[in-house]
Amino acid sequence: MVDFISNLSLIDLHIHVGGSVAPHVLWRLAHEQGFKLPVDNYWQFKQLVTATSENVSSLDDYLKILHEWTEKIQSSPMAVEQSVYEIISKEYRSSNVTAMELRFNPMKRNSGGELDLDHIIHAALRGMDRVCLEYGVQAGLIFCLAREFDFERNKILVEKAIRYHGRGVVGIDLAGTEKRRLEDDPALLKSYGELFAYARQHGLKTTVHTGETRVTSGEAVIAVLKHLKPHRIGHGIRAAYNPKAMAMLREQAVTLEICPTCNLRTGAVANMQEFQQIFTNFNQNGVRYTINTDGSYLLQTNMQQELRLLHENRILSQEQIEQSLLWAKEACFIFALRYNPNSYLTPSHQAEEE
Ligand SMILES: [Zn+2]
């Protein structure tokens, strides 16, 4: 299909490594590592690692697939390197995504501490370096802290992100089940507020998953904005029903990372009519948003498909889609940090060599 979307150079700021590797690649990685799989053939495996309306109706169902299968299969330096390489190259080939930020939790890839975290991180950076050189795209990594981890483990992840900041780790995120309500716990809000400030002092950018599902509200978004002060918010759709949250997002120039298919699949947004209302509220209140994939293979989508879903359902006009891309450019951590893995290929550097 050729439309204006096909001609855009896209940006995807919200991609989970756990949900974005093709099933046939996961299948190969599982076999290469001698994994015992509870299936008879590839087709059954594909069902296992794909979120359909039969097996996923909530965020926790969605996270369960990551936890039980993809994160385990990706738990080796070899698997992490190949996963990162495959995701970035596929985003470019399928949708002409030329700048992207991948997020994952290295501590969910090191077999409960049996593997060295630095080996896992170096592997991810190797995969990213190779694919950026081959495809000429720009990419960065975001480390996800986990809501279910204790504070000390998450602090280690922040220290690792700081250590690898100059190598292509551009930020941190907080992700996981929304049933663990950091937003209602003053002591945790204070600790994580300090941890996020510490990350920013060391040059990292920050984003937080919040206000995603119906168990939270705009109040959760307000609490995160107040205490964690992130540059962006993952999803944050509950803010659409809270004028104060929208005013804060606008005033603090915080950009939302919306992932439409993911929100529909997990039931965070009931249907396209609700999306219509959500985007109308954001547009009327000056809230900036970007459109992203979350987990392209798990959700059987890609960036162009996400944009078409909104455009064809008359939720976003061409102008609004182009505006969201401009916001993505402004909110992109890679661009803000001027991190360019291909910078050594620029003409000025070549001139110096001569
Ligand atoms: Zn997410």
Topology:
Elements: E1 10-16, H1 23-32, H2 42-48, H3 59-73, H4 77-95, E2 97-104, H5 117-135, E3 138-146, H6 151-163, E4 169-175, H7 186-201, E5 205-210, H8 218-227, E6 232-235, H9 243-251, E7 255-258, H10 260-265, H11 272-284, E8 289-291, H12 303-312, H13 318-331, H14 333-336, H15 347-353
Helix pairs in contact: 4-5, 6-7, 8-9
Distinct helical segment count: 15
Cα end-to-end separation: 45 Å
CATH class: Alpha Beta
Structural class comes to: alpha/beta
Contiguous low-pLDDT stretches (5 residues minimum) are: 343-354
- Write down the domain tally: 1
Globally, the shape reads globular
The total beta strand count reads 8
Largest pleated sheet: 8 strands, parallel
What number is the mean pLDDT?
A: 92
Q: Would you mind describing this structure in some detail?
A:
Strands 1-2-3-4-5-6-7-8 form an eight-stranded parallel beta sheet. The chain is α/β, with parallel strands linked by helices. 49% of the residues lie in helices and 14% in strands. It has one domain (4-348): Metal-dependent hydrolases (TIM Barrel, Alpha-Beta Barrel), CATH 3.20.20. Helix 9 (243-251) links the parallel strand 6 and strand 7 (255-258). It is globular and about 55 Å long. The protein has helices at 23-32, 42-48, 59-73, 77-95, 117-135, 151-163, 186-201, 218-227, 243-251, 260-265, 272-284, 303-312, 318-331, 333-336, 347-353; strands at 10-16, 97-104, 138-146, 169-175, 205-210, 232-235, 255-258, 289-291. Helix 4 (77-95) runs parallel beside helix 5 and helix 8 runs parallel beside helix 9. Bound molecules: zinc ion. Zinc ion (ZN) binds at residues 14, 16, 175, 209, 234, 294.
